[in-house]
Amino acid sequence: MKINHITTDLNNKREKLLEKTKNYLLNHKLTGKLGELHTKPKLAEGVGKIGLILHLYRFFLFYPLAIIYMEIVFKISVFETLFNSGLFYMILFSTSAGLLLYILSTFFKRRVNRIISIIITASITLIYIVQVVYYQVFTTFFALFSINGAGQVLQFWREILNAIGKNIIPILFLLVPLIFISAFGNKLIPADKTAWSMRGIIASAVLFIQIIATLAVYSANNGELSTRFLYSEAIIPDLSVTRFGMLTTTRLDVKHLIFGFQSAEEGLPEEESFDAADETDSSERGEMALSTDNQVNNPAMDSLEDKDQNTDQNTAQNAVRSNPQKAENAYNVMDIDFDGLIAGETDPEIQSMHRYFKKVEPTRKNEYTGMYKGKNLIFITAEGFSPYAVKKELTPTLYKMQQEGFRFTDFYTPIWGVSTSDGEYVACNSLVPKSGVWSFYVSGRNYMPFCMGNQLKKLGYGTKAYHDHTYTYYRRDVSHPNMGYDFKAVGNGLDVKKTWPESDVEMIEKTTDEYLGAAPFHTYYMTVSGHLQYSFGGNAMASKNKELVKGLPYSEHVKAYLACQIELDRAMGELISRLEKAGVAEDTLIAISPDHYPYGLTLDEIGELAGHKVEENFELYRGIFLLWSKGMTPVQIDKPCSSMDILPTLSNLMGVEYDSRLLMGRDILSDASPLVIFSNWSWLTDKARYNSKLRKLIPADGESEATITKEYKTAIAKQVNGRFTYSTNILDKNYYAEVFKER
Fold first, then answer.
1. pLDDT for the residue 601
2. pLDDT score at 8
3. Which intervals carry biased composition (Polar residues) (predicted)?
4. How far apart are CA 216 and CA 250, in angstroms?
5. What is the pLDDT of residues 556-583, one digit of tens each?
6. CA pair distance 713, 665, nearest whole angstrom
7. Rg (the chain; Cα; Å)
8. Domains of the chain by residue range
9. Count of C-beta atoms within a 10 Å radius of residue 114
10. CB 681 within 8 A of CB 617
11. In the chain, N or C: fewer CB atoms in 10 Å?
12. Is the peptide bond before 553 cis (omega within 30 degrees of 0)?
């Protein structure tokens, strides 16, 4: 009996010793003794030596395969495609990232390593799920800077739940790696810590793959928006996610958030002008075919004779430099001594900005300059507004304003990274938002002299701003007072009925008495009644106006959207009525533009309103800009323009002193060449449009590929680059304070 007990004990110890020896040799040493190992014959015979290594080290494959899998699910879910030029880079970067995460999961024994692996996998999974849901709601990607306002985003919990419901299948697929590591981690993860020698091998593999991927990226430096440019000099989420994957884009976002952009000055234009590429006369460049009383423009104006552009541009710049006083009478410029600023500046980046803006071609004053000088101005950013909401029978006030005011037939409202806030920022400041941050909030610490509140306040105007939702949302409590406004919203002085969304009509009723008694006045409104979600069950404004749209031939969501826009129309009707009663309707200019297109509708639903399938890169962003004053003669403007052009256009009409060289938009009513730029660096002019996703140039109607030269394409691309780069620098460097610090 005792002998049997001893034998059993020896056998147990023998089995434990064999197990430890196997782990030691295979999991740590990887020596040639593998062949001598007594292991399960079936496994050894079936997979051989290499197969045995892979079997025992299969955990190192988990993270790379899991990340590549989630990237595939994500791309199919968001972009409805997988195979493109970025697949190669995505696999390389995902593999190196996965192997690095493997190293982080090998410093302890199985139990702790399993917990670490679950936490890491859950964190990565959360990134993908958050981005899928956020993109569903806002049609843009979530920037890490927005974590500061995550609590505010959660106010839209209904929309978030709806987005989760619409994406439940891809979300479940994204959860597969987390479920797998949770269920099979004990079998997948080795029992003991991994030796440093093994970590060294994996670390070498990480370094090697990362070097190969980086070399491949830096060698791809051909054409506009090259792979190298996207990786090292700019964060353009739509393109970056497509080219590198979501996880790498997140890493680049973290890098840029911490260290800023490493923007190369090389390749940026020396002067902001289309003249180097466009070989037509300046009168044709700026020809916008103005017509009155709704007359169609005269096409004969397009046949003007070609001339050398550089002469015209140099004349403008030389006039400003040689005789600033005389130039101010002809151009919208201020007396800025850029040469003196350059000489006295020690910061090379600010010096570069001085040189750049010194060479920007200013816009000419024109017949509309000062048309509303001394008059009142009401400037409105309308939530989710679009040209599809303007219908004679449904929204008669908006229709009246469109038909009787300035009518912009080719206007665009691009969407930017921070949705509504960036839409406001562009319209109010004529600057490109910086990717990855809340530009409007950040601008609250800067000197912003050109926004209408500050410009008109120094002329003695009463300047007020209102928003019928929470006053701290997007930190408007910081940005809007900095624009020169006495700002009121829900929570700091504006008392409106608590609904979702709130009523624009009620906001007008509660605020007009605060400024109509004083003249002159300038008032800014940010509306909310047009906000998604467009349904009759969860949207108070849609429910309120449901009866007015029930007979329309549209789906329920589209009818709900129009019902929300009816509230805006009624608000404008109430506003105009009060202006008329106060006797100032003819002395008040009203400007209305959207913050973004109605992304709460699907593309198919927008197609219902448009009457056809909507093209996604350009047509989707066709917006509307209403510019109206009672009794004015209607004017039609047919050249391309965008929300970035609103501020200089209003500044010119109001006759205020501003410097057109320091803004990224252009006075639409001037002879400046049109340029519309989009967040993914696509662009559109009167001659062509460039699709950055397809990297394809498309001539405008009436133009041919032969007339759009390579030089033209390059010149426009450089200008787009310049506007993005120097808008960021203006924000980061508080540049206007540098220019006007002695004023």
1. 95
2. 56
3. 291-300, 311-326
4. 20
5. 999 999 999 999 999 999 999 999 999 9
6. 19
7. 31
8. 2-43, 57-259, 324-355, 368-674
9. 19
10. no
11. N
12. no
User: H helices within 430-537, ranges in order?
Assistant: 439-443, 452-457, 476-482, 504-511
User: Distance between CA 489 and CA 465 in Å, rounded?
Assistant: 8
User: Which segments within 263-302 are labelled E, that is strand?
Assistant: 291-292
Amino acid at 313: Q
pLDDT for the residue numbered 56: 57
Low-confidence ranges of the chain (pLDDT < 50): 2, 6, 24-47, 264-313
Q: What is the rounded distance in angstroms from the CA atom of residue 192 to the CA atom of residue 174?
A: 29
The DSSP symbol for 363 reads: P
- DSSP string computed for 197-265: HHHHHHHHHHHHHHHHHHHHHHH---STT-HHHHHHT---HHHHHHHH-HHHHHHHHHHHHHH------
Q: Which two tokens stand for residue 346?
A: 């020690």
With contact defined as beta carbons under 8 Å apart, do 414 and 677 qualify?
Answer: yes
59-79 helix and 110-138 helix, angle to the nearest 10 degrees: 10
For residue 161, the model assigns a pLDDT of: 86
Determine the pLDDT at residue 51.
Answer: 56
Amino acid occupying residue 183:
A
Axis-axis angle for helices 157-166, 110-138 (nearest 10)? 100
In one-letter notation, the amino acid at residue 624 is I
Q: Which residue has 């030596």 as its token pair? A: 49
| Residues linked to residue 593 through DSSP beta bridges, in sequence order | 381
* Greatest alpha-carbon span in the chain: 117
Residue 362 CA to residue 326 CA, distance in Å, equals 14
What gap in Å lies between CA 209 and CA 215, rounded to an integer?
10
CA atoms within 13 A on the CB side of 513: 4
Contact present, 378 and 575 (Cβ < 8 Å):
yes
Query: Where are the strands (E) in 239-371, listed by range?
Result: 291-292
- Pull the structure tokens for residue 274: 């289309």
Q: Are strands 688-691 and 406-408 parallel, antiparallel or unpaired?
A: unpaired
Helix (H) / strand (E) element for 640: namely none
Coil, helix or strand at residue 137: helix
**How much is the pLDDT for 268?**
46
**Which pLDDT score is estimated for 255?**
85
How many angstroms separate the CA atoms of 530 and 513, rounded? 24
**3-state SS class at 8:** helix
- What is the rounded distance in angstroms from the CA atom of residue 314 to the CA atom of residue 359? 9
Using CA atoms, how far apart are residues 255 and 276, in angstroms rounded to an integer?
36
Q: Phi and psi for 471 in degrees, rounded to 5?
A: -70, -25
CA distance 682 to 618: 9
Cis before 533 (ω within 30):
yes
Cα 44 to Cα 15, 41, 149, 178, 600, distances in angstroms: 18, 5, 56, 30, 58
In 555-697, where does DSSP find H-type helix?
556-581, 603-610, 646-654
CA 589 to chain centre: 29
> Judging by DSSP bridges, how do beta strands 635-637 and 641-642 pair with one another?
unpaired
How far apart are alpha carbons 174 and 71 in whole angstroms? 9
Phi/psi for 149 (5° steps) reads -110, 20
Assess contact for 238 and 679: CB atoms under 8 A: yes
> Could you count the other beta carbons within 10 Å of the beta carbon of residue 421?
24
Q: Which CATH superfamily is domain 368-674 in?
A: Alkaline Phosphatase, subunit A (3.40.720.10)
Structure-block tokens of residue 177: 């790696």
pLDDT value for 238: 84
Helix/strand/coil (H/E/C) assignment for every residue in 146-182: HHHHHHHHHHHHHHHHHHHHHCHHHHHHHCHHHHHHH
Give bridge partners of residue 486 from the DSSP assignment: 464
Q: What's the pLDDT at 221? A: 75
Q: How far is CA 121 from CA 58, 198, 453, in A?
A: 16, 22, 49
